[in-house]
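Subgroup meeting minutes
Present: P.N., E.W., G.H.
Scribe: E.W.

1. P.N. recapped why we're keeping a running log of single-chain structure predictions: easier to compare across weeks, and new members can see raw inputs and outputs side by side.
2. G.H. added today's entry (198 aa).
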Amino acid sequence: MLTHRILHVAAGILLASSLCATLAHGQTAPASQTTSLGDAARRVREQNRNRPAGKVFTNEDMADLKGVVSVVGSEPAPAPAAAETAPAAGAEAAPAAAQPEVKDEAYWRAQFAAARKKLADDSKELDILQREYNLKEQQFYSNPNVALREQNSRADLNKTRDDIEAKKVDVEADQQAITALEDQLRQAGGNPGWSREQ
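Output recorded in log:
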């Protein structure tokens, strides 16, 4: 008890002395800073003026370089002859890029096939997880002495059950994705038969 009081008093003294030293140092710091921001800027400008400039590369210097030169920035303007032909090529490319994606029967059948495949894969994984869980649950003993000797534990069963719940959410999301695709097909004015398997 006495040692705790001594420790608290010592800590208080150390804290008070460090605060006093900080305050004393803080009061002298502004007095020593008499240089203004403008003076500091002038000094830096003078130092940069006396510094030699870096090397400037010209076309003649480039011929002596070996290796690949990487150019950063925009491309230079084309020559006048190329400038006359460029608008014609650009005019042809613009309509092709502006055309929307064609959503025909092949597009919709591919979208529905991919959605059905994802649903089938997730449903298969869910079925496998449920079978594993049932097997582990049959092999798990509720008697703690016997359970210590077994390979399946309650944590393993809980993890498998959590995996099953997560996979159920995935299957539900896949079914909702197919429903959303059917709505998109209907809104696009497509044939409802495109959503069915062939």
